[in-house]
């Protein structure tokens, strides 16, 4: 009986193979202009496109929100692919003589691409002077056209995986993915309850505060709790986002007394913020018994201060080296500081390098070490074992420890 069925399968498979062969042999070498599968793939993964800035508004005394809409050029209009709250857009910028890529979380709701005037927004904070935020604040205005690709990242709410109750733990500009999430919940596009614990130094540092307050006022599924670390005038929660505070505002965690609140529910914790805050929050998760399945964090960029990177050789701080960069048949020699990632040295020298996460995880900046020594940050080393063996490294999380020769892809 089994053999009969098996022979039937083999016969059927060989007929399909013949049919496939005939179809392939008779197929036109020119792709069909109306290929619905290709159209769908292009719609979901369009690659780099141009978008025009249609609005710039204040999101705090030190933050601005930039709205982008599709841009039409030579009769072809770009389009905004569907995205999820928590995903980011990668910008490809030419600033002076440097070519840089930078990722920003989308702060608008995914439903904003379904309206008559589809758009997406990012919100950038510039509390101190930094290269790319400076560029956005000084140069990017209504009518500016920028090149970008979206969406990227796995940092989003997924109902099949995550609990219906979500506690977001945010610091500084790490609020932006949760602003998008709150807007989408209010628009009815996301079916979960969201409590945001948002840490700032002073109330004037709160990013998107008015928008969040408006959502929390009208949407009972969204609650926002601000926590100020150094603001004597603040009447609400003060200090840092501690274990006790998380416990206080989390109905998914037993109360400090050991009693379980009546409304105890399963909870997913999502974190986006600076490294220093991540360490504290991570310790709280362990203290509260929250396992990795229920704690998720956004991609973490390498800290700008190398002293925060465990194991970084401090005697290298201030040293400078030369990097010979091989791209195809071209070779360039550039200067590099030991306390800056190789990707930054390349960008400073106007050598394009594709970066996304800038935390060592995604692999977009994968390069090959041909000669010399590097320090790879243990905070983000997403390389496979074979890549390490073959001398591949991620330029965003590797630091030169001697003169180097490296090979990078041509962009
Ligand atoms: S940009 Fe993601 S690994 Fe370097």
Describe the structure.
With 411 residues, this protein is α/β, with parallel strands linked by helices. It has three domains: 42-152, Translation factors (Elongation Factor Tu (Ef-tu), domain 3, Beta Barrel); 165-297, Rossmann fold (3-Layer(aba) Sandwich); 313-407, Roll (Ubiquitin-like (UB roll)), CATH 3.10.20.30. Helix content is 23%, strand content 30%. It contains nine helices and 21 strands. Strands 6-5-8-1-2-7 form a six-stranded antiparallel sheet, covered by helices on one side. The chain has a six-stranded parallel sheet with strand order 12-11-10-9-13-14, with helices on both faces. A hairpin with a 2-residue loop joins strand 5 (88-95) and strand 6. It is globular, with a radius of gyration of 25 Å. The model has no long low-confidence stretch (mean pLDDT 91). Bound molecules: FE2/S2 (inorganic) cluster. The site of FE2/S2 (inorganic) cluster has 12 residues, from loops.
What percentage of the residues does DSSP assign to strands (E)? 25-35%
Order of helices and strands: HHEEEEEEEHEEHEHEEHEHEEEHEEHEEE
Per CATH, which architecture of the largest domain? 3-Layer(aba) Sandwich
CA-based gyration radius: 25 Å
List the bound ligands. Answer: FE2/S2 (inorganic) cluster
* Superfamily (CATH H level) name of the largest domain: Nucleotide-binding domain of ferredoxin-NADP reductase (FNR) module
Major pleated sheet: 6 strands, antiparallel
Number of helices: 9
Q: Kindly, what is the distance between the CA atoms of the first and last residues, rounded to a whole number of angstroms? A: 58 Å
